[in-house]
């Protein structure tokens, strides 16, 4: 198909919008069907990836009886004759005689034959050098398998790898993990009216999405290199096709900003047609942000890549990120579909007719309530800068004080655990 023919074909009437919850489901399934291949990563390089197979124990945890305290491993009744010392990292000989003891360090292997451990601070020495005291009734050591038995599944496939998981894997004896790699993403910024520096004016506005979207994508687990952010791309069909083709050469996901409608300089649809893309979702019944889309391209070798068309208005673009990009990336990484927590509305939120309304809110976590924010227009960023997420107001409803509604959390900073 020629570029001109593709452009003509793309100018047909827009399809009926997909219901918001259905759109999330579609893009997640599309991502899961194209889940990234599994690779082996050393523990030091696994942070931010996703388990491609369950994490199971390779040995009992702990693997041997381990002292929980500094003290004395004793056999029988006291006072006890000191016959040695046990430090962590050594295999001690057994205690074979009642009335004997060895000094033991926290984390050291408990000698076979021990009947109790006496804490160092609760012991005394007799005149002839023996150890006296009363061990506590509860055992002061960890039994083999107390935390987990060999072969037990600790975490399922699809779990994000974080420092806690890495530490657990190391304790199980892993040197590397089988993971799905982080998706690589690129961003194309469309719009001749955009400035990349300086003050807006004379009909031109600052590009707010070029600096912001890569940071959102990283919070969703993507790799985005500086060279992967391109724009503003000229408002011509040939420039759009060339930019998309270049970005798709290396990226698993290309996000674009603007051009998702069918105006005189909206070239995304005809560019996708020229590249042979098919739509997973083409417009969503949600406000703000309804002219969002997700398209899929399949190479001759079966490699699948995606293009997420984000509206040009900044808040609408973020709505598209949480609505389409977040579920897609979860699928690509083999993670579960992001579940939506619930919150109680502290103030009313109007509905949007037959569209889902995603309303910016701030969470009061102590009270479990969501508070709508001002400055929430689709072109505004002030409200978004103070928001924790979006309250979901279902089609044909409005949100009243006290209603329990789903909320879509915004991704947290890299130093915080993802919701």
UniProtKB/TrEMBL annotation:
Record-listed E.C. numbers:
2.10.1.1
Name the Gene3D superfamilies for this protein: MoaB/Mog-like domain (3.40.980.10), MoeA, C-terminal, domain IV (2.40.340.10), Molybdopterin biosynthesis moea protein, domain 2 (3.90.105.10), Molybdopterin biosynthesis moea protein, domain 3 (2.170.190.11)
Which domain of life does the UniProt lineage start with?
Bacteria
InterPro entries in the cross-refs: MoaB/Mog-like_dom_sf, MoaB/Mog_dom, MoeA-like, MoeA_C_domain_IV, MoeA_C_domain_IV_sf, MoeA_linker/N, MoeA_linker/N_sf
Show the GO cellular component annotation of the record: cytosol
Q: In which pathway does it act?
A: Cofactor biosynthesis; molybdopterin biosynthesis
Catalysed reaction(s) here are:
adenylyl-molybdopterin + molybdate = Mo-molybdopterin + AMP + H(+)
Q: Top EC class per UniProt?
A: transferase
Q: Which Pfam families match?
A: MoCF_biosynth (PF00994), MoeA_C (PF03454), MoeA_N (PF03453)
* Cofactor(s) needed by this chain: Mg(2+)
Keywords in alphabetical order: Magnesium, Metal-binding, Molybdenum, Molybdenum cofactor biosynthesis, Transferase
* Record's keyword annotation contains Metal-binding: yes
Q: Name one GO biological process term.
A: Mo-molybdopterin cofactor biosynthetic process
What are the residue boundaries of the MoaB/Mog domain, all occurrences included?
A: 186-331
Q: Name one GO molecular function term.
A: molybdopterin molybdotransferase activity
**Similarity remark:** Belongs to the MoeA family.
Main function: Catalyzes the insertion of molybdate into adenylated molybdopterin with the concomitant release of AMP.
Name of the protein in question:
Molybdopterin molybdenumtransferase
* Species of origin: Micromonospora eburnea
């Amino acid at each position: 198909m020629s570029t001109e023919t593709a452009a003509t074909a793309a100018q047909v009437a827009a399809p009926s919008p997909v219901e918001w919850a259905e759109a999330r489901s579609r893009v997640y399934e599309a991502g899961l069907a194209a889940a990234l291949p599994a690779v082996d990563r050393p523990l030091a390089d696994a942070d931010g990836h996703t388990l491609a197979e369950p994490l199971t124990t390779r040995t009992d945890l702990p693997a041997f009886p381990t002292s929980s305290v500094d003290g004395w491993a004793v056999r029988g009744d006291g006072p006890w004759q000191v016959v040695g010392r046990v430090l962590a990292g050594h295999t001690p000989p057994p205690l074979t005689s009642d009335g004997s003891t060895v000094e033991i360090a926290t984390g050291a292997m408990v000698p076979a034959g021990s009947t109790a451990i006496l804490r160092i601070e609760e012991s005394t020495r007799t005149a002839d050098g023996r150890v006296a005291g009363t061990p506590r009734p509860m055992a002061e050591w960890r039994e083999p398998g107390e935390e987990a038995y060999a072969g037990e599944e600790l975490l399922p496939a699809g779990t994000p790898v974080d420092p806690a998981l890495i530490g657990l894997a190391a304790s199980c004896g892993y040197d590397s993990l089988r993971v799905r790699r982080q998706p690589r993403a690129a961003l194309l910024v469309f719009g001749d009216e955009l400035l990349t520096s300086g003050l807006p004016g004379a009909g031109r506005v600052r590009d707010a999405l070029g600096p912001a979207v890569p940071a959102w994508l990283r919070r969703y687990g993507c790799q985005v290199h500086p060279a992967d952010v391109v724009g503003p791309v000229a408002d011509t069909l040939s420039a759009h096709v060339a930019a998309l083709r270049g970005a798709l050469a290396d990226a698993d996901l290309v996000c674009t900003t603007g051009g998702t409608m069918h105006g005189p300089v909206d070239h995304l649809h005809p560019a996708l047609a020229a590249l042979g893309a098919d739509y997973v979702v083409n417009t969503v019944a949600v406000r703000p942000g309804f002219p969002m889309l997700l398209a899929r391209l399949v190479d001759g070798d079966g490699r699948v890549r995606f293009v997420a068309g984000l509206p040009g208005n900044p808040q609408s673009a973020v709505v598209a990120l949480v609505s389409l990009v977040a579920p897609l990336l979860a699928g690509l990484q083999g993670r579960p579909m992001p579940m939506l927590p619930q919150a109680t509305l502290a103030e009313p939120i109007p509905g949007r007719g037959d569209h889902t309304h995603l309303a910016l809110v701030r969470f009061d976590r102590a009270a479990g309530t969501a508070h709508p924010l001002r400055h929430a227009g689709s072109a505004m960023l002030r409200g978004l800068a103070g928001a924790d997420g979006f309250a979901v107001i279902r089609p044909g409803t409005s949100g009243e004080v006290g209603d329990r509604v789903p909320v879509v959390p915004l991704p947290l900073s890299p130093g915080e655990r993802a919701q």
